[in-house]
């Protein structure tokens, strides 16, 4: 009798190979206005620790694809910690620990062997304070593609042009590409950081209070930009601004003291929340 190479291997080897071939978790769905939407991020029983201090407690959430999800709650409630877990930015902090599962595009991102560089390419991040590199506008946007191996100048030009257009900045800097990014206004610098994140073609964009340090006009431009990007990207935004969350998001999660109190469609959260604690926060009774 002829046996396959797998059949002829020891039982322990076959078991290990079977475990290695565990299928990716298929995308699940959530319902919005009676329609089914694919989940791109699934968070299951997440606990997070800074040393002995626990910052997140049993957080479970499903984030739909190509929608804007806002995270609200008082300062120190775990919002920023949560989104940094989604692309493992907290890994750079000593003595942190994660429990639970975070599945993005069907893969557990904390599984051993995960390529964190590739993860952060697919899950981009824009921070609260704009952080352009002390380089030219062009080199800021081209930095990521170059890091990932793109050297062709014509293709780099196309990426820079496209990324600046998507971030609604091209018309303002097209004649200043060789100027230092540090010479841009605060609002322009923040949109440059968005362009830099978009240049590596992520699926997901995390935004940690991207407009909190900006003037009202620049804040409006950032909000308009989010509205334009939602058709192509999944966006998760942390904000203290209730009106901003109501304006820009499809879904909202309310955090309090490291716990996700409520997650639902934004319209429901702001008009008929399920929890009194959510209502009290939104109406300004605390926070």
Instruction: Give the SSE order as H and E letters.
Output: HEEEEHEEHEHHHHEHEHEEHH
Largest sheet: 6 strands, mixed
How many helices? The count is 11
Report the structural category: alpha/beta
Distance between the termini: 73 Å
| CATH architecture heading of the domain at 26-130 and 201-282 | 3-Layer(aba) Sandwich
**Helical content, roughly?**
25-40%
Instruction: Please state roughly what percent of the residues sit in beta strands, choosing from under 5%, 5-15%, 15-25%, 25-35%, 35-45% or over 45%.
Output: 25-35%
Quaternary structure of the protein: single chain
In the CATH scheme, what's the topology name of the domain at 26-130 and 201-282?
A: Rossmann fold
- Mean pLDDT equals 88
What overall geometry do the principal axes of the alpha carbons give? globular
Number of strands: 11
CATH superfamily of the domain at 26-130 and 201-282: P-loop containing nucleotide triphosphate hydrolases
Please tell me how large the radius of gyration is. 21 Å
Unreliable spans? 1-29
Highest CATH level, the class of the domain at 26-130 and 201-282: Alpha Beta
Task: List descriptors.
287 residues; alpha/beta; 6-stranded mixed beta sheet; 5-stranded antiparallel beta sheet; 11 helices; 11 strands; 35% helix; 26% strand; globular; disordered N terminus
Can you offer a commentary on this structure?
This protein is of the alpha/beta class and 287 residues long. It is 35% helix and 26% strand. It has a domain at 26-130 and 201-282: Rossmann fold (3-Layer(aba) Sandwich), CATH 3.40.50. The chain has helices spanning 11-20, 79-86, 116-122, 137-147, 153-166, 170-173, 186-198, 216-229, 242-248, 266-271, 276-282, and strands spanning 29-32, 35-50, 53-64, 68-72, 96-104, 107-108, 123-126, 204-208, 234-238, 251-256, 259-265. The strands form two sheets. Strands 7-8-9-4-10-11 form a six-stranded mixed sheet, sandwiched between helices. Strands 1, 2, 3, 5 and 6 form a five-stranded antiparallel sheet that branches. Helix 4 runs parallel beside helix 7 (186-198) and helix 5 packs across helix 7. It is globular. The termini are far apart.
